[in-house]
Amino acid sequence: MSSPIDAGDAPADVARPRSLTDLFVSFTLLALQGFGGVLAVVQRELVEKKRWLTREEFIEEWAVAQIMPGPNVINLSITLGARYFGWRGALVALAGMVTFPLLVVLGLALAYANFADDPNVRGALRGMGAVAAGLVIATGLKLSSALQKNVLGIPLCAALGVLAFVAIAWLKLPLAWVLLGLGAIGCLVAYRRLL
User: Fold this and answer.
1) Which of 55, 103, 164, 165 is geometrically suited to a Cys-Cys bond with 146, CB 3.0 to 4.6 A?
2) Does residue 79 register a pLDDT over 80?
3) d(Cα 93, Cα 89) in Å, to the nearest integer?
4) How far apart are the C-alpha atoms of 18 and 77, rounded to whole Å?
């Protein structure tokens, strides 16, 4: 984990959490509103509202969070907590992400056990899945402008994205192999262009 940064190390347009309590409350509220399409919520809260990350930083941190084992938003919260408050921040951010949502999920599991056979409940769950997919697509489109600054460039990023979709959705290749293969290509091209 990286060491905590000073307020002077952050760019002028980027804020930071005021305290460990602010970090805990912020991630708790983020987790409680992040059912399904969590990417859209996380991006809006951390980049647009709180300004704890720039768009470019968010995309980089989210990419790292996606390749680490575990839920993406949990990984992001840990790295962001560590960035500002070290290991204590990582633990507090993690606690904020899991404490109250765990209680909510346990309550919903009990309710679902009683109403699982109701066709209205099944229909509502299918509808929520469609909404979550729409939120993820909308956020991806919103963040695509940040690719203009990416060393790979928009055409190569788009090509890698399409190849990943084809490999996973149509060819049914394992995610790990797709990440290793296409990720290695992306890293190699980025390395060569940065030289």
Assistant:
1) 55
2) yes
3) 6
4) 16
